[in-house]
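INFO batch 0412 | record 1 of 1 | parsing
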Amino acid sequence: MPYFKTSQEWLDHSVALLEARPSQTRVTTRYSIKAVKPRKLTDPDASSADDSAAAASDPKPPRGSLVLKTYDPASGVTLKYRTTKAAEVTRLMHAAMGRLGRAMANVHDVPEATMQDADAAETPQGEQTPQQAQQGAAGGGGGGKKKKKGKK
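INFO prediction complete | emitting tokens
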């Protein structure tokens, strides 16, 4: 099972697989935290007692790993992606829960509709409400460009 090199590539292929077979395809996530193994020095002559003492007293924090897998049992297709980047883990969890979740539920992306104000919905197109007339008559105020400050 090969891993994809980029998360976007994995996400695009996973969406396509889920759209083809939404009832059979499964998306799984696995998050694991493992302790970082200390590096072995390659040159024994270059190491000193000070370096080994500093390395032992300053251990690296454990490293988390997220593995995402999309599997279709009917065709046997498996799509995998692995990352250790914390920022990417958050983004992928939102993508997996959002975009892939909608594809699994067979709900298509619907663009958000803009909501109208209650006054605008009741008033015909050509007329203005009293609030709109007052705002238009007041004129002038705000919205102009600000003066840029120079470097000192």
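INFO post-check: The mean pLDDT is 74.
INFO record closed
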